[in-house]
Amino acid sequence: MRVTLGLASLAMVPLLSVCDNRQALHAPDPTLARMLVQPKADPYEATSAFADGKTMRDPPRGTVARDTEEVAAPPLTRALLTSGRVQFERVCAACHGIAGDGVSVVATKMRGRPPPSLHEPAHRAKSREQLYTVATNGYGLMPSYTDSMTVEERWSAVTYVQALQLSQNAQVASLPADVRAALAKEAP
Predict the structure, then answer these.
(1) Contact 80/159 with Cβ under 8 angstroms?
(2) For position 31, what pLDDT does the model report?
(3) 55 secondary structure, DSSP code
(4) Is position 108 within any domain?
(5) Could you tell me the CATH number of the domain that includes residue 93?
(6) pLDDT classification of 174: cutoffs 50, 70, 90
(7) Sign of CA dihedral 104, 109, 111, 114
(8) Which is nearest to 158 in space by CA: 117, 128, 125, 123?
(9) d(CA 67, CA 147)
(10) Which residues pair with 139 in a beta bridge?
(11) Fewer CB within 10 A of the terminal residue: the chain, N end or C end?
(12) Would 65 be classed as within a structural domain?
């Protein structure tokens, strides 16, 4: 047993001498000054690395930049509103409340700067495009939703927000006569 253990130890000596980890065990540079002297090319500088002499490369034909999105609002349809309600209740209602009034459990925990009511005049005055920009880029403590919602989902959610704003701020006098009559029958 001792002989086997001894032979195994001797067999490991050449393997251990091959491992040189001195470079891996150096102290990190907390100032990140090494980033100032790293090799890099100025995009507008000439280079011999490419046949055309340009450092900045043209994107491959047919590619589209990731941050370029269609900004035109989609047409208003029942399907868009239905999808928007689902998206709003899934993503937005946790902070802004199911009615968009800013009443939610999350809002009660954010005493310093709670999520606003979407029925405030400043928010009602925003266009669909402006609301879409907020959902895309975030605003204040609200994060961007580009990673969790597709372009179509964001458009549907902001379209539903505007329908919600309209429904919560509608004047009874501006409703059609048959709707006013139905409301009158339901009133206590």
Answers:
(1) yes
(2) 73
(3) S
(4) yes
(5) 1.10.760.10
(6) confident
(7) negative
(8) 128
(9) 12
(10) 142
(11) C
(12) no
Mean pLDDT of the chain: 85
Q: Which of 26-35, 36-45, 113-122, 165-174 has the highest mean pLDDT?
A: 113-122
| Report field, pTM of the whole predicted structure over 0.70 | no
Q: Could you report the per-residue pLDDT of 125-165, keeping only the tens digit for each? A: 999 999 999 999 999 999 999 999 999 999 999 999 999 99
> What torsion, rounded to 10 degrees, do the Cα atoms 15, 16, 18, 24 define?
140
Instruction: Give me the residue label for tokens 């009034």.
Output: 101
Tell me if 96 is assigned to some domain: yes
| Residue 120, CA distances (Å) to 34, 53, 78, 110, 170 in order | 50, 56, 25, 18, 14
Is position 83 within any domain? yes
Domain count for the chain, please give it.
Answer: 1
Could you tell me the residue range of the domain that residue 102 belongs to?
A: 78-168
Buried/exposed 44-57: b ≥16 CB within 10 Å, e otherwise? eeeeeeeeeeeeee
